[in-house]
Amino acid sequence: MFERIKRLFRFGAKPNNPKNDESSKQEVEIVAEKPKIGYIHLSGCTGDVMSLSENYDILSELLTNMVDIVYGQTLADVWWDDENPMPEMDLALVEGSVCLQDEHSLKELYEVRKRAKLVCAFGSCAKNGCFTRFSRGGQQAQPKHESFVPLSDLVQVDLAIPGCPVSPEIVAKTVVALINGDMDYLAPMLDLAGCSTNCGCDLQASVVNKALCIGCGTCAMACPTRALSMNEGRPECNKNRCVKCGSCYTHCPRSWFPEDRIKQDLGL
Amino acid sequence: MVLGTYKEAISARATDKAIQKVSQDGGIVTALLSYALDEKIIEGAVVAGPGDKAFKPEPLVALTSDEIISAAGTKYTFSPNVWALKNAVRQYGLEKVGTVAIPCQLQGIRKTQSYPFATRFLADKISLIVGIFCMENFPYASLETFISEKMKSSLDLTEKMDIGMGKFITTTQDDELSIPLKETHGYEQAGCNICKDYTAELSDVSTGSVGSPNGWSTVLTRTDTGASLFSQAVEAGIIETKSMDDVKPGLGLLEKLSNSKKSSADKEITKRVDMGLPVPF
C-alpha cells in the first residue's frame, strides 16, 4: 500500500515534519503530474466536506497547483451519469455510509472502486457507519432506505480518516503528508481502514476489558457529543448520546500509539 | 534514553512561601502554571482540583493563581484532566491552555496533537504541559483499602500523602504513618503495568521529588516551550535552583527508578503478548 501511494504521488519518502497546526502553512513542493482526486458524497451530513473546505489557506494553492479535483458534486460540479463516464482517479475521498436500498449509491460506490486507485473512507460514516447505524427506515423522503453500512462492508477501503466530522486540521496534515511523500504519517490511517466497528461501547470491550485503560480521559475529550464521561477513572458511555463515530477509540492512547511521530513533532 | 530527551536536569523549588506550605515537594507545577498564567503565556490551566471526597480530585479549569494553588499537592488517584481540556477550550473559550499531566495523560494529549482526527480546533490550544513523574496510579478504592486496612487510618483523617524512601506515608493531624511501598503493590490499576514512562517524557517540562532533597524537586526541561518558561521563572525569582550534581540522592536514583519501570513494563508486555492480548507499545 505504501508503495502504491508513493508511486501515485511520485515521491520518495522524504522525511518531513508537519508541526502541529502550522502544517497548513508549510511549503509544499509542486508535483510533476497532479494527482487526480474525486469526492464522493454518499449518506453523510456534508460535515466532512465542510471541514475539508475550511482549510482555505492551503486549498487555493492545493486546488490550483497541487491536485486536480476531477469528480464531485460540491467541489467540482461533476456528476457521473450514463452519458458522462466517471473519470479515472488517483484518490477518491468517500463521505458517508452506503445505503443498501439506494441503487444509485451502490452503483456509484462500485464504480468509484473501479475508477480510483485508492479509496479513502472520509469521516466516520464511511469508515464505520457512525450515526447512520441507527437508521431503521420508515422515514421520508425514502421510507425504504433502511440499511446503511460502512464502505468496507462492500468494497476494499485503502485508508480511513475517522471523525464526526473529520477535523480541518487532520485534513490539512494528511494533505501535506501526502504531498511531501511522508508515508509514515499515513500508516495509522491505513491500519484504521480495516476497522469498522468501534464506538463508545467498544471502549469497554477493547480497552477496559483488555487491562489497558489508565483513566486519562482522552476518550471523553475526543467525544464530539459528550456521550462519554469519566467515572472512577473509567469511561462511561451514555448510549443515548453516542453516535458511534469511534472518535473515542481512535484517540485512546492505548488503542494504537504513534510514539515516533509524536517525538518527531515535539522535536524530542 | 532512560529519562527521555531532555535539555537540562536541575533541582529546584518555588520561592513563594504560600506555595511551599501546600505543595508536595518543591511546588514546581504550581509555580510554573501560576507564573505562566500571570505572564499570560497561558489563559487558564486544567489542574487536579479538590473534589467532594478527601483526596479524590476533580479536574478544575483554573483561571487564577489562587485556583492553581488550591490544587497543589499530589493525589494518588485518577483526575481525568485530559477530559477537562475540552471544557477549557469549548466552554471557557481559552485559546492557550496549560495543564499538568502524568505520563499516560501526556500520551493521550500528544497523540491527539499529532493526529487530531475528531478534535476540531482543540489540540492546538493546548500550549503548555507540565509533566509529573509517575510510577503507578491507584483506584480510589485501593487507597481506601490500604489506608484503612493496612495503616489502620482513614482518608478523612489524612492530611498529606507521600511516597518516598520506599514507603507510602500519610500524615494525620498528630501522627505520621507509613507502610513499605511494597505493601501497596497489587493495588495499582492494571493499565499502569505496561507503561514505560516514569519521567513524563512527552511533556514540555517534567518534575517530581525523586533525585532531590526534601522540599525540592527534580526538573527536566524538554521542549523549547518548557525550557524557556522554566528559565524565565528562574530569572523572575519565582523558582530557585541547585545543580543536580550538588544534591543528594541525585540523578542516579531517578535513572534507576525509570529503568526499573521500563524493565518491569517490558516483562508485563511480553507476558500479555504471549497470552494473545493487545498491547499498543
TrEMBL record, chain A:
Enzyme class: oxidoreductase
InterPro entries according to UniProt: 4Fe4S_Fe-S-bd (IPR017896), 4Fe4S_Fe_S_CS (IPR017900), Coenz_F420_hydrogenase_gsu (IPR017681), Hydrogenase_assoc-protein (IPR051349), NADH_UbQ_OxRdtase-like_20kDa (IPR006137), NiFe_Hase_small_N_sf (IPR037024)
Xref: Pfam families: Fer4, Oxidored_q6
Domain of life according to the entry: Archaea
EC number: 1.12.98.1
Keyword vocabulary terms for this entry: Oxidoreductase
PROSITE patterns cross-referenced by the UniProt entry: 4FE4S_FER_1, 4FE4S_FER_2
GO MF terms held by the record: coenzyme F420 hydrogenase activity; flavin adenine dinucleotide binding; iron-sulfur cluster binding; nickel cation binding
Family to which this protein belongs: Belongs to the FrhG family.
The name this protein goes by in its record: Coenzyme F420 hydrogenase subunit gamma
Source organism: Methanobrevibacter cuticularis
Automatic annotation (TrEMBL), chain B:
Presence of keyword Oxidoreductase: yes
Enzyme Commission number(s): 1.12.98.1
GO molecular function, one term: oxidoreductase activity, acting on CH or CH2 groups, with an iron-sulfur protein as acceptor
Metal-binding among keywords: yes
Transmembrane segments: none
Signal sequence region: none
Cofactor(s) required for function per UniProt: FAD
Domain Coenzyme F420 hydrogenase/dehydrogenase beta subunit N-terminal: 10-86
InterPro entries for the chain: Co_F420_Hydgase/DH_bsu_N, FRHB/FDHB/HCAR-like, FrhB_archaea, FrhB_FdhB_C
Gene3D superfamilies in the record: 3.10.450.750
Top-level division of the source organism's lineage: Archaea
Coenzyme F420 hydrogenase/dehydrogenase beta subunit C-terminal domain span: 95-246
Assigned keywords, A-Z: Iron, Iron-sulfur, Metal-binding, Oxidoreductase
Family membership: Belongs to the FrhB family.
NCBIfam families on file: frhB, PRK09325.1
Protein name: Coenzyme F420 hydrogenase subunit beta
Source organism per UniProt: Methanobrevibacter cuticularis
